[in-house]
Amino acid sequence: MPLIEALRPHQWVKNLLVFAPLVFARKLIDPAACLHAASAFVAFCAVASGIYLLNDLSDIDADKLHPEKKLRPLPSGRLSAGTAKVTLVLLWIGGLALAFLGANWFHWPLGVYLVINIFYSLKLKQVVLLDTMCIALGFLLRIYSGAVAIGEEASPWLVLCTFFVALLLAFGKRRHELHLLGEGSLEHRKSLAEYSLPYLDQLIAPLGALTVMTYAMYTVSERTVTEVTDKLIFTVPFVVYGIFRYLYLVHMRAEGGNPTRLLLKDPPMFINIVLWLGVSVWAVYTGAAVPQ
Q1: Whether residues 125 and 25 fall in one domain
Q2: What is each CA distance from 168 to 112, 128, 156, 209, 269, in whole angstroms?
Q3: Same domain flag for 11 and 130
């Protein structure tokens, strides 16, 4: 169905980040906290799908020139602009209503996410660097929304790690677009004219290192060790492998255009994510916090 396809349900996997505070705060077995986190997840899915529709509406002419995006429902003509506009308004109203009715007022990070992405869709995606910063901020707001929904404070190290990995994925996506479109990149997205493959490579490499470093610092930080567990350090090798695998796919296979599908459809990456999640849950729920 064109409308369902335009909502990009496969992208909802990004919104699973709202459950990260739930897992790492040891509230995965708390029914009330799970319900609040689930409400935040559904609200983010609704608002994000509305943003995808707005983004496709604003990019409809440029997407017709893209070898892959021209097949999407709006640029291909399988979905009318009128239907998309009505649907995005309903999704935003529903998502924000759920957020306002939810516990602990998690509507503020969702509202900020909506405002940032409206500006992104209409203007900021054409501004070099700000385009990727907006994407990264969206991931941060998912973490904050999940934390606020369950009444917890997000770890600064976890927030930094999320920010760096989001930037890594965003720049990897820009690199793929630049590589795929070549001289036609300017016709698709103005900001691509301000990027170059060497410049993006210089940004991607340190972001991979910063992601690993901040995650490692999170696992051994005083707050994590004293309030959660001292065993999360065992998950660091999975993060290191995940970053190395992603860099391999970006540089050696010229992939990265759709990070979500890349993470789910590359077997080694998918297995690594499952193992990381399994070891993380084991560490958090069987490991003992070390008293101060």
Answers
A1: yes
A2: 22, 15, 18, 10, 16
A3: yes
Q: Using CA of residue 42, residue 169, residue 263, residue 60, what is the dihedral sign?
A: positive
C-alpha count within 13 angstroms, C-beta hemisphere, residue 192: 19
The pLDDT, as a whole number, for residue 199 is 94
Torsion sign over Cα 53, 55, 57, 62? negative
Residue 126's Cβ-side half-sphere holds a number of Cα atoms within 13 Å equal to 14
User: Could you read off the pLDDT of 220-274 as tens digits, one per residue?
Assistant: 999 999 988 999 999 999 999 999 999 999 999 888 778 888 888 899 999 999 9
Q: Are residues 84 and 52 in the same domain?
A: yes
Q: What is the SS3 assignment for 25?
A: coil
Residues 100 and 171 in one domain: no
Residue 154: which residues within 8 A CB-CB, separation 6 or more? 21, 143, 144, 146, 147
Q: What domain range includes position 266? A: 155-292
Question: Of 288, 158, 141, 260, which is closest to residue 213 (Cα–Cα)?
Answer: 158
3-state SS of 108-174 is HHHHHHHHHHHHHHHCHHHCCCHHHHHHHHHHHHHHHHHHHHCCCCCCHHHHHHHHHHHHHHHHHHH
Q: Is the CB of residue 152 less than 8 Å from the CB of residue 103? A: no
Give, in order, the Cα–Cα distances in Å from 118 to each of 47, 53, 83, 105.
11, 11, 18, 21
Closest CA to 165 of 225, 240, 237: 240
Q: How many Å apart are CA 143 and CA 129, to the nearest integer?
A: 22
